[in-house]
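Backbone-to-sequence.
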């Protein structure tokens, strides 16, 4: 069934797709890895891989969704009827279900910290102990996770135009404005340039085979490709819009946010002589202690938490949308009920992840907690597998004339660019994904 709703504008689509791509990984892990893996040299590699690998995959998903005007599962069935390719869409749904079940746990932590920050409850306890208490507290973890999912459900239940597009039109500009405020504050601190140097100075001697592989993997994971989210989002896009131009805007915004994150974090961290770190430690332990030492630090940390919350929510919208769309099949009457049923089921399945730092910390799979095992499964197995299958699907199963029409590539220059895109998608992307896939599993 053809989708009844569409994005009201190209801007609405770009902001929603960029919101899906810009998540926690681009903000709390990527800057640190850049800083410790060659700085500007790593960033240059990441930029090249994003354009040469990530962007072709992103355009591939756009073509699948927009050409069929169907959600993830039906899109593959329409293009390749009577085959098993629809399982690529189903794989994306399963991946997003598992991903949102533990991603919402982190969203709950952020909401918990934001509430404590606004009410002045972050002071008086060492931040490492406070973070340990928050994630080990079963009630705080579950309430935070549920609150995060309820916000996500309410937005998705309202539909494409009134829900996801409307929310992203406010959240994404707010995210950029907050980043600019934090950047300006960080860059005006004494000794801030040492942080800028750590983050951006090219050091090719610091590049290792592992950092090159990470840059390659991050280049397609950072754009939300491989889970068919962009298939679903592009299915709501008008035939008038230029897919390549839209993809370029989304890639540019993603790179800009990664740059902003480093320029907001490292100048402040270095100015106050704090050791930079990656992941949860950066957000919940290092940054509170940094902001505590500068004028109006509590206010700036609350701003930073709000920024993280927006980035987390806009990604969560897309994860829930791909699942809801596959069940509602364009029937808006089913959307609200499906959103709540799926969202609450995700909450229940995410309970073990929420409790894996407290009452279930002794429960492990291959030496990993439930949370870490779910993270490993999604990041190291399901997402690379999905990206690999999509890179095979487009060149093998989509007609050349459909691809040319969707990409508006009928001019001489357009045909040359089209040939380059197809070459990257058919040969370069699969090899790169396979190498990263095997490396992440410890087989390469």
């Amino acid at each position: 069934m053809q989708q009844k709703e569409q994005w009201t504008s190209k801007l609405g689509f770009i902001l929603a797709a960029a919101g899906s791509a810009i998540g926690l990984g681009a903000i709390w892990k990527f800057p640190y890895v850049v800083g410790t893996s060659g700085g500007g040299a790593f960033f240059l590699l990441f930029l090249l891989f994003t354009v040469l690998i990530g962007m072709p995959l992103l355009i591939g998903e756009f073509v699948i969704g927009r050409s069929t005007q169907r959600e993830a599962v039906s899109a593959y069935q329409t293009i390749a009827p009577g085959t098993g390719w629809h399982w690529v869409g189903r794989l994306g749904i399963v991946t997003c279900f598992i991903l949102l079940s533990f991603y919402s746990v982190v969203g709950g932590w952020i909401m918990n910290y934001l509430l404590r920050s606004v009410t002045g409850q972050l002071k008086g306890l060492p931040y490492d102990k406070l973070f340990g208490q928050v994630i080990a507290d079963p009630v705080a973890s579950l309430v935070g996770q549920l609150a995060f999912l309820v916000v996500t459900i309410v937005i998705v239940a309202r539909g494409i135009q009134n829900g996801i597009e409307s929310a992203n039109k406010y959240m994404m500009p707010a995210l950029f404005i907050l980043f600019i405020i934090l950047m300006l504050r960080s860059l005006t601190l004494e000794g801030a340039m040492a942080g800028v140097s750590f983050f951006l100075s090219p050091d090719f001697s610091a590049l290792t085979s592992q950092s090159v592989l990470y840059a390659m993997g991050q280049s397609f994971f950072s754009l939300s490709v491989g889970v068919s989210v962009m298939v679903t989002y592009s299915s709501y896009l008008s035939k008038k819009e230029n897919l390549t131009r839209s993809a370029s805007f989304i890639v540019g915004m993603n790179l800009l946010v990664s740059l902003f994150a480093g320029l907001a974090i490292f100048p402040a961290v270095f100015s106050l002589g704090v050791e930079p770190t990656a992941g949860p430690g950066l957000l919940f332990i290092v940054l509170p202690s940094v902001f505590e030492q500068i004028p109006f630090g509590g206010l700036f940390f609350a701003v930073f938490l709000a920024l993280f919350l927006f980035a987390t929510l806009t990604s969560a919208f897309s994860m829930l949308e791909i699942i809801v769309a596959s069940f509602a099949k364009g029937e808006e009457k089913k959307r609200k009920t499906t959103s709540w049923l799926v969202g609450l089921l995700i909450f229940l399945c995410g309970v073990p992840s929420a409790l894996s730092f407290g009452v279930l910390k002794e429960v492990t799979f291959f030496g990993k907690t439930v949370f870490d095992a779910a993270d490993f499964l999604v990041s190291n197995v399901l997402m690379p597998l999905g990206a690999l299958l999509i890179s095979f699907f487009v060149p093998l199963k989509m007609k050349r004339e459909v691809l040319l029409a969707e990409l508006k590539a009928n001019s001489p220059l357009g045909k040359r660019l089209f040939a380059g895109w197809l070459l990257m998608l058919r040969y370069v992307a699969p090899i790169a994904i396979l190498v990263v896939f095997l490396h992440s599993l410890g087989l390469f």
